[in-house]
Amino acid sequence: MIRVLVAEDQSAVRAGLVLILRSAPDIEVAGEAADGEQAVALARELRPDLVLMDVQMPRLDGVSATRKVVDEGLADVLVLTTFDLDEYVFGALRAGAAGFLLKNTEAKDLLAAVRTVARGEGIVAPAVTRRLIAEFAARPPREPKADPAVLESLTRREREVLACLGEGLSNAGIAERLDMAEATVKTHVSRLLAKLELRSRVQAAVLAQELGI
C-alpha cells in the first residue's frame, strides 16, 4: 500500500482528492492536513510514503512545509498548484519536491503520479516536466551557477543517467535509452543523488540542464 498524506487548506478540494485516492486499491490515505504546520506535524507522526502538498496554505506555506518534510527525510512530496509554472512551483522544486501536479489533473493522472513518485521516480508528466526543467534552469539562480567540477565524482554511466534525467526521462525511458535494467537505473540515480547531495530527481534534472550535459 502507498500511504499518502493530503495537505490542502480548502476542505472541498481536499475531500475530492481523498475520494480519488481512496478509489485506488493500492493507495491508503494516511491523514489529512489543513495547513502547512499540520502537514509537517502529521508527516512526522504518520511517516507516509508521500505528501500531496498544496503550495498555498495558511500558517506555513507549502514550499516551507515541503522543505521541512524533505530535509527531515519524512516523505516524498508531490506539490499541487492552480497555475502552471508559477513561482510556488519553482520554490517547491528548490525545496526538494519530487514533482508537481495541477489541481485540475484528471483522477487517473493523479493516481498515476502518486504511483510514479512512490516507485522513486520523481518526474511526472514528462512533456510538462521537460518544459518546467528548461525554464527553471534558464532563470537566474539565487545561488551561484553550478560548478562543472561537481561531476568529477560521477562515473561515466552515472553522467549518462544524469543527462537522461535532464531530458525528463523516467526510469523506464532511461533503461531503454541506455540498454540497462530499470533496477540498475534506479541504483545509479540513488548513487548520483547522494554524490551530488541533491534531494530529488528533479533537482538532478535541473543541474543537468544548468551544466548543459
TrEMBL record:
Keywords associated with the record: DNA-binding, Phosphoprotein, Transcription, Transcription regulation
Modified residues (4-aspartylphosphate): 54
SUPFAM superfamilies xrefs: C-terminal effector domain of the bipartite response regulators (SSF46894), CheY-like (SSF52172)
SMART domains: HTH_LUXR, REC
InterPro entries: CheY-like_superfamily (IPR011006), NreC/VraR/RcsB-like_REC (IPR058245), Sig_transdc_resp-reg_C-effctor (IPR016032), Sig_transdc_resp-reg_receiver (IPR001789), Tscrpt_reg_LuxR_C (IPR000792), WalR-like (IPR039420)
Domain HTH luxR-type stretches: 147-212
GO BP annotation list: phosphorelay signal transduction system; regulation of DNA-templated transcription
Sequence ranges assigned to domain Response regulatory in this UniProt record: 3-118
Transmembrane segment boundaries: none
Pfam families: GerE, Response_reg
Example GO molecular function: DNA binding
Protein name as catalogued: DNA-binding response regulator
Organism: Streptomyces aurantiogriseus
Species classification: Bacteria, Bacillati, Actinomycetota, Actinomycetes, Kitasatosporales
